[in-house]
Amino acid sequence: MEFKNVPAIVTGGASGLGEGAARALAAAGCKVAILDVNKEQGEKVAAEIGGIFLNCDVSSADSAEAAVTAAREAHGPCGVAINCAGIGPAEKILGREGVMPLENFSRVIQINLIGTFNILRLAAADMAQREPNEDGERGVIINTASVAAYEGQIGQAAYSASKGGVVALTLQSARELAREGVRVNTIAPGLFLTPMLAGMPQEVQDSLAATLPFPKRLGKPEEFGMMVDQMVRNPLLNGEVVRLDCALRMAPR
Q1: What are phi and psi of 215, to 5 degrees?
Q2: Which structural domain range is residue 31 located in?
Q3: Is the residue at 246 inside a domain?
Q4: What digits encode the pLDDT tens for the residues 189-205?
Q5: Is residue 250 part of a domain?
Q6: Which residues form a coiled coil (predicted)?
Q7: What single string gives the DSSP state of each residue in 30-64?
């Protein structure tokens, strides 16, 4: 798919992997709308890339609908949608403080999985209204999972379940949206230098990097953006989950 002047929305685009995706799309020529709850950082990134910022809670139907509508009014119907918004709290099913509260599990599912589907459905509706290219393609949706979808570590019950759901959604939605000319893919990142990891002591970052087969360093948000770029460009890439993880296979702890 071509990028020039194509309206794009990026959830979680104010920082981390989402910021990497937003910058890559803007550099390629897309008109980018950053959807996030972090207003200050979101507006800063949007100004730097020539895009717009829209406050959006992806777990809320009303908030997401309002944001996608505002993006459409500003740039036109969405042609590229990148789902990066998410949370990753660690909590054991049976911890020292007792059993995990059900609402803690539900919150992660609500944001990571339901939030992803929320934007996917709205973006797909926008894309279905767009004029197709010569292949009949109208849009591209890219979701973000995690290697935790496959090798969930101790304390990652909610996070792993949410990301496993994103993985399972990929092929199903690609098949269903094929008749609309919409491709759906997912990136499953490993260890990346996101704000959470960047805030850890250097020795902790180094110890994490040492677990990676090659290269032995944390991934950079711009490298996530590179994968987004390639997934949008390659018309044959559809219904796939691509691990971006330096050949990492997570240990139990």
Answers
A1: -70, 155
A2: 7-192+220-238
A3: no
A4: 999 998 877 776 888 78
A5: no
A6: none
A7: -EEEEEES-HHHHHHHHHHHT-EEEE--TT-HHHH
CATH number at residue 34: 3.40.50.720
pLDDT digit string (tens) for 93-145?
Answer: 999 999 999 999 999 999 999 999 999 999 999 999 999 999 999 999 999 99
C-alpha distances (whole Å) from 236 to each of 70, 135, 170, 188, 193 are: 31, 10, 15, 19, 30
Q: Give the position of tokens 């279905």.
A: 128
159 in catalytic set: yes
Domain-embedded: residue 214: no
List the catalytic residue out of 15, 23, 64, 159. 159
Residues contacting residue 168 through CB under 8 Å, at least 6 positions apart: none
* Residue at 74 is within a domain: yes
pTM for this predicted structure = 0.96
Q: How far apart are CA 41 and CA 220, in angstroms?
A: 18
